[in-house]
Amino acid sequence: MKFVDEVSIFVKAGDGGNGMMSFRREKFIEKGGPNGGDGGDGGSVYLEADENLNTLVDYRYTRRFQAQNGQKGGSTDCTGAKGEDLILPVPVGTTVIDAATQEIMGDLTKAGQRLLVAQGGWHGLGNTRFKSSTNRAPRQTTPGKPGDARDLKLELKVLADVGLLGLPNAGKSTFIRSVSAAKPKVADYPFTTLVPNLGVVSVGRYKSFVIADIPGLIEGASEGAGLGIRFLKHLARTRLLLHLVDMAPLDGSDPADAAEVILHELEKFSPALTQRDRWLVLNKADQLLEEEREERVRHVVERLDWKGPVFVISALESEGTEALSQAIMRYLDERAVRIAEEPEYTEALAELDRQIEDEARARLQELDDQRALRRAGVKSVEEADDDDFDDDDDDEGGAEIIYVR
Hints:
Helix content is 23%, strand content 20%. By secondary structure, the protein is an alpha/beta fold. The strands form 4 sheets. The protein has a 6-stranded mixed sheet with strand order 11-12-10-13-14-15, sandwiched between helices. Strands 4-2-9-6-7 form a 5-stranded mixed sheet, with no helix packed on it. Helix 2 (255-269) runs parallel beside helix 3 (290-304). The longest helix is centred in the last third of the chain and has 34 residues, at 343-376.
């Protein structure tokens, strides 16, 4: 299966049908009047959020979409048929951007939500419309208006309450398998997770939350090392970040160093994202003795100067995972109450969300520009001209990132 989270498509609404010029011709009626009908409106193009989709792969190869044109008007005052609207299904969490202006046209965050992206052309008028007491035989009609045409960029950000951060093999996939029914790949080598995975964590009756496991980061990810930082955009809409750290690395390295690597890459991607509520989760506690655990926890907390909540778990043995899940559920419930009762808190969250979105988009655009320069053989932005940023290989994927699972 292919996971595609960025695509570029072209949409064209249907053109309106032309008006008809016609005159009534019947036996024994010497001078029939005008009876040309109007054309039909062109069909519009809509995007609709579909909860059964989780990737934009359907738009990877088919990129041009056009709604039906309206039919021209007929005689005897017959109106032409309206063009059928075109509805394109996309995953929930898709952001729609006008490629020409970089303006965000809409955000499809709820199943069934529909967004008009190209308005159908208005119908033309038949000559009957121009009949008057002084113009008894009008020979005037109007053509249908052309439908809107747009190049769109679709960006998918998975919707989850909680996002997992960590180096490869920190135990993120094992954790999500432990607390939910999701079954991401788990192995004893890095980069076993190549695409984001979602799991629903049930905490008591009628209480649950969604958790997202994204591919692990490594040092230099902000410059393109490993899988890069593109998947960090999927954390932009999460409410809480869990920073998973392997407290017993097989290579004997310092767990605090691993935590600092992630914090550094996170800051380079979006400083605002570091302001999102974040909890420290020290994993693989089953690999250490009780005394070693306490000493290791104390060392990491002091080294990072961590002020937030700290949890010690073993995802493999499901040790401490229930308590962590309960704490997350309480946090989400309290957050929902504050949003309902405190307008200032809600406004602050909305402003933080906007800031994260802007910084993430700017950083990813910067990476795309750098990649375009490397393809053009240009070493620096100063040496580049506008032509160097043109994507001549759009048919081969352009700026899309495809990860194969």
